[in-house]
From TrEMBL:
Keywords from the UniProt entry: Membrane, Transmembrane, Transmembrane helix
Protein name: SAC1 phosphatase
Source species, domain of life: Eukaryota
Record field: transmembrane: 106-128, 134-154
Cellular-component GO terms for this entry: endoplasmic reticulum
Gene Ontology biological-process entries: phosphatidylinositol dephosphorylation
Length: 172
């Protein structure tokens, strides 16, 4: 319709145009995905040329998306809701719904878990004088790591960065 190809021509027959078209398509997908999900699009290398590195990057982007979606993306949904008009600001209410005071556990528990897990790995890699000493250290740091992880899981909803601009009718 745009006159790029003649009637009966196929895009596969135009190698240069196909490459430019697929790259533009993948670049557009990346731009849209970065705005919406915070990472590049998945499988853009499939559009270009599938590689092992692209497969690894898809896994990495999936992990980053999981983290962002659960722990740091509530503000993004709030911005979208404000922009689309899904949330209307109540002029009578003076307190901001965006200001939520965080408890000490939001910073302390993840730090304790990471330190305990790191110490467990270090104790495994740098064995002590005896196997019982190494086992004691690994059990201590492993249980500390597992314990803090269990506490975080138990309080999981508190750690999730949920959108704060939720209409009261939608909460019911």
């Amino acid at each position: 319709r745009l006159g790029v190809l003649h009637v009966g021509q196929r895009i596969e027959e135009q190698a240069d145009f196909e490459k430019i078209y697929k790259n533009a398509w993948a670049d557009n997908a990346n731009a849209c995905a970065k705005q919406y999900a915070g990472t590049g699009a998945l499988k853009t290398d499939y559009t270009r040329q599938r590689t092992q590195w692209g497969l690894i990057m898809d896994g990495w982007n999936s992990l980053i998306r999981y983290y962002k979606n659960n722990f740091s993306d509530g503000f993004r949904q709030d911005a979208i809701d404000l922009f689309l008009g899904n949330y209307s600001v109540d002029e009578v209410e003076h307190a901001s719904p965006l200001h939520v005071k965080k408890d000490w556990k939001f910073l302390a528990l993840p730090i304790i878990m990471v330190v305990a897990f790191s110490m467990c790995i270090i104790c495994l890699l740098m064995a002590g004088d005896t196997w019982t000493e190494t086992l004691a250290y690994v059990l201590f740091w492993g249980s500390a790591s597992f314990g803090t992880f269990a506490i975080i899981l138990y309080n999981g909803k508190d750690f999730v960065d949920a959108p704060k601009l939720v209409q009261k009718e939608k909460m019911d």
